[in-house]
Specification:
The complex is a heterodimer of chains A (about 325) and B (about 230). By secondary structure, chain A is of the alpha/beta class. In chain A, about 35% of the residues lie in helices and about 25% in strands. Chain A has one domain (about 1-95, about 175-310): Rossmann fold, CATH 3.40.50. Chain A is built from 13 helices and 12 strands. In chain A, the strands form 2 sheets. An 8-stranded mixed sheet of chain A has the order 6-7-8-3-9-10-12-11, with helices on both faces. In chain A, strands 2-1-4-5 form a 4-stranded antiparallel sheet. Chain B is globular and about 55 Å long. The two termini of chain B are about 25 Å apart. Classes of the chains: A alpha/beta (about 325), B alpha/beta (about 230).
Chain lengths: ~325, ~230
């Protein structure tokens, strides 16, 4: 039992998140996955399927009108039961997050050095000077040659790719056990994405950081992830090793998603993903599914495990 | 020589010229031609002036040197009324669909505003918008929604639909799919091709994604260091 606990870093079980407004919208339902040490799990899916909500739930960053059920266990501790004070100690130190837009995530009125030194000063109570010199070393590791100058830069002086690397440096400053990267490649051009990839790979090898990668860029995911969870309309519909998802996708949606890649000639999936306030009855993908049967419309499929992978479809009994 | 095409002739654009500064040259001596029903792809790294070139072609900005020829006649030094007609025929579609619609207006209002601006009779509004929705494949109920209630793909379809109401001959597509997911990107690209085949529209497709350009266009150019290199 103990060996199992040490190998699994984060375990999410039957997570259900809903937002309460004029009507209650269930954004996530039945989300279960786990991340082992120094493993990369990728969450992929269309915009609005709830990928970022998963990340925000783990980090306790959801708005107050949200209701969360289920369990999020990090190193054997249930994060959902913690209060804000206890969570502050974990957030940034044990679990760090890189947000979507690098230029929005950095504070425009503080220098890069100040923002990089902040986690050290907050969590480890270091003096300003010592923290700044450690920030410079961190930048050196991020392959900035003029690292002592970069300390005095402001986010608006730098390109998107540079800001993204500053953010990675800031979030990995305290050697977190788990790094959540929410669409890190969005809005970056090809050269910057390649740089980002090398940084993340280096992190995995050198510091044994586990990574929860959220992205819709499938090429990027393929190069980085060990396992992939495909999400559709607030549910995980397929969870498998990276290679088997790309070589032998099981769920019709995963197949459609792969077919719409440039390499396969941009073959689109017909229709739109359903609004989360009124998901269709039965399988949530059935209105767009080319292989639907009568019972797909009536019965909601469960996530079933076959040969070490899981899929939510009646095609695989 | 008279020809039905949209032609850029030795265009140059320099920003920030004044008494004291010589300005920064964005691109110089750029020439290419778009024929109706074909696509010219424009690619290049970010910050090389692709969007500025698109804006010059669409008549939103004036070139520092050179001229844009629309069906054989130059666009510089023409009357405002003539220019207005050109503006209707050459449209531009922007990168981020969520910025293209007024967040305080319903989609229906945003769309009919365009028809009113171009003095289309009120009696024709309903038939025109219905035909447009058929082309872009959306239900009529989207007209009662606000932009925030629709997905990026749906908004980008509506942005194209709103442009199609004006019956353009050429459309400048400025990174039409870079803000969208792969699956939605495929949908939009196929729709653009379908619309082009039906209505014989010429596209200037601006993208940093080479695969998208290859998939869509007959000829293309690479804008790098201020120069355009034509690749067939």
């Amino acid at each position: 039992m103990k060996s199992h606990a040490s190998s699994t870093l984060l375990e999410v079980r039957d997570l259900e998140v809903s937002f309460q407004g004029i009507e209650t919208v269930t954004v996530l339902s039945g989300i279960s996955f786990s991340i082992r040490e120094s493993e990369t799990l990728a969450l992929v899916g269309e915009t609005g399927c709830g990928k970022s909500v998963v990340a925000h739930t783990i980090m306790h960053l959801l708005p107050p009108e949200s209701r969360v059920k289920g369990a999020v266990e990090f190193k054997g501790k249930n994060l959902l039961g913690l209060n804000e004070k206890e969570m502050t100690k974990i957030r940034g130190k044990e679990i760090a997050i890189i947000f979507q837009d690098p230029s929005l995530a950095l504070n425009p009125v503080y220098s890069i050095g100040h923002q990089l030194a902040e986690p050290l000063r907050v969590h480890q109570k270091e003096k300003k000077k010592a923290a700044l010199s450690r920030a410079a070393i961190a930048l050196k590791c991020m392959s900035f040659e003029n690292f002592s100058e970069c300390i005095n830069y402001y986010p608006s002086w730098c390109s998107g790719g540079m800001n993204q690397r500053f953010l990675i440096a800031a979030s990995t400053m305290l050697n977190p056990a788990l790094l959540i990267a929410d669409e890190p490649s969005k809005g970056l051009d090809k050269k910057c994405v390649a740089e980002l990839e090398t940084e993340l790979k280096k992190l995995k090898v050198e510091r044994k950081t586990s990574l929860l990668l959220i992205s819709h860029d499938l090429g990027f995911v393929q190069r980085l992830a060990n396992r992939i969870a495909v999400m559709y309309a607030g549910e995980i519909i397929e969870l498998a090793d990276s290679s088997s998802v790309f070589e032998k996708p099981l769920h019709p949606y995963t197949r459609g998603l792969l077919n719409s890649l440039p390499e396969k000639g941009f073959i689109p999936i017909p229709g739109f993903s359903p609004p989360l306030n009124s998901p269709p009855l039965g399988c949530r993908f059935h209105p767009r599914c080319p292989l639907r049967e009568k019972y797909c419309i009536q019965v909601h499929p469960e996530l079933k495990e076959i040969d070490g992978r899981a899929v939510r479809c009646f095609l695989y009994p | 020589m008279f020809s039905i095409s949209l032609r850029a002739d030795h265009l140059s654009k320099t920003y920030g010229t004044g008494l004291l500064s010589r300005g920064r040259c964005i691109f110089r001596e750029v020439s290419f031609e778009i024929k109706p029903g074909t696509t010219f792809g424009l690619m290049g790294p970010s910050g090389e002036g692709k969007t500025t070139l698109g804006r010059v072609i669409a008549g939103i900005e004036k070139p520092t040197e050179g001229t844009v020829y629309y069906n054989g006649s130059p666009l510089s030094g023409i009357k405002k009324t003539v220019h207005a007609a050109f503006r209707r025929r050459v449209q531009i579609m922007f990168q981020d669909p969520s910025d293209a619609f007024n967040p305080r207006k319903t989609i229906g209002n945003s769309v009919s505003e365009v028809l009113a601006l171009f003095k289309v009779l009120g009696t024709e509004h309903a038939s025109k918008t219905r035909e447009m929705l058929m082309t872009i494949g959306l239900p009529e109920e989207v007209f009662f929604r606000y932009p925030s209630q629709l997905s990026g793909g749906q908004l980008q379809r509506l942005a194209l639909g709103r442009i199609l109401l004006l019956e353009p001959e050429y459309i400048v597509l400025d990174e039409p799919t870079s803000a969208l997911d792969v699956s939605v990107q495929a949908q939009i690209l196929h729709m653009l091709k379908k619309v082009q085949a039906e209505k014989n529209i010429g596209y200037l497709l601006i993208s940093h994604d080479e695969v998208v350009i290859r998939f869509m266009s007959e000829s293309c150019g690479l804008l790098e260091n201020g120069r355009l290199k034509i690749i067939n």
